[in-house]
Amino acid sequence: MDQPIRTKSNGQIRVVLNSQERTTVRKEVPDFQVVPKVIPPEHTALKEIEEELGALVGMEEMKRMIKEIYAWIYVNKKREEMGLKAKKQALHMMFKGNPGTGKTTVARLIGKLFQKMSVLSKGHLIEAERADLVGEYIGHTAQKTRDLVKKAQGGILFIDEAYSLGRGGEKDFGKEAIDTLVKHMEDKQHEFILILAGYSREMDHFLTLNPGLHSRFPLVIDFPDYNIEQLMEIAARMLKEREYTLSHEAEKKLRDHLIWVKAVLNPNSFSNGRYVRNVIEKSVRAQAMRLLMLNSYDKHELMTLRSNDLVFEED
């Protein structure tokens, strides 16, 4: 019998048993792999969503989390295709943060991403609050809640200030809404995604109201308040989109005011990006009133917001 002949070829050890039978034994793959920073072209859904996420100021943890969720779903599908165990995890989420930090915007983007990945059939967003779920008599709440879940089938049910469902005491029908939601989260966990949103501390307390709540939200995303530089960036982007700009004095006035308002307002009262948007919209109207009284003005003047145009909610 011929003796095996060992040869090296292209980094592999080839063991030739005889002229008819050959087999290949691969070297052990190194545990460390260099991962490219550029997203491979087949991940078009992620690339599209990342472009939209890139338009959002800050939110680095949230952006990383969405990429992780995408990777987990994608790899799970590959495992399934290759006959490996691929347990489906519920994707219900909790968004914790103050108003104006982008929670609703991100919920819409997640719906769009999951629709592209065939996780959700429609990817639409149904927004709701306490009044949309809680009824006025026994049985009314359960029916209203079921109707909302039905509307959200194939998409996302987004409940803002969800903690308000547990604030009415023992006789309040909010508890009935919570119990109905928990049941549907279990029975239809892969047919829709529930996102509950609200202030961090209140949402932590809310989770204690029903023993089954905490374990049903495997994904918790924190939305921190914007710092001054981020708020100024939000203002700059809003102005650029509308083809406006701030004069040097107006920019300084806005920055100083934001520093002041963040220092004196209760964090729960400050609406972050929403506050900036309101200032911009009111200031644009104030500029229009000023220009109305002028005899003539050029393109630059039409685009410029001056310090006396700025209108703040506290004025």
TrEMBL record:
The keyword Nucleotide-binding applies. The keyword Translocase does not apply. Residues 89-227 form the AAA+ ATPase domain. It comes from the Bacteria. GO terms for molecular function: ATP binding; ATP hydrolysis activity. It holds the Pfam family AAA_lid_6. Keywords: ATP-binding, Nucleotide-binding. InterPro entries: AAA+_ATPase, AAA_lid_6, ATPase_AAA_core, CbxX/CfxQ, CbxX/CfxQ_RuBisCO_ESX, P-loop_NTPase, Spore_V_K. Transmembrane segments: none annotated. Belongs to the CbxX/CfxQ family. This is Stage V sporulation protein K. The lineage of its organism: Bacteria, Bacillati, Bacillota, Bacilli, Bacillales.
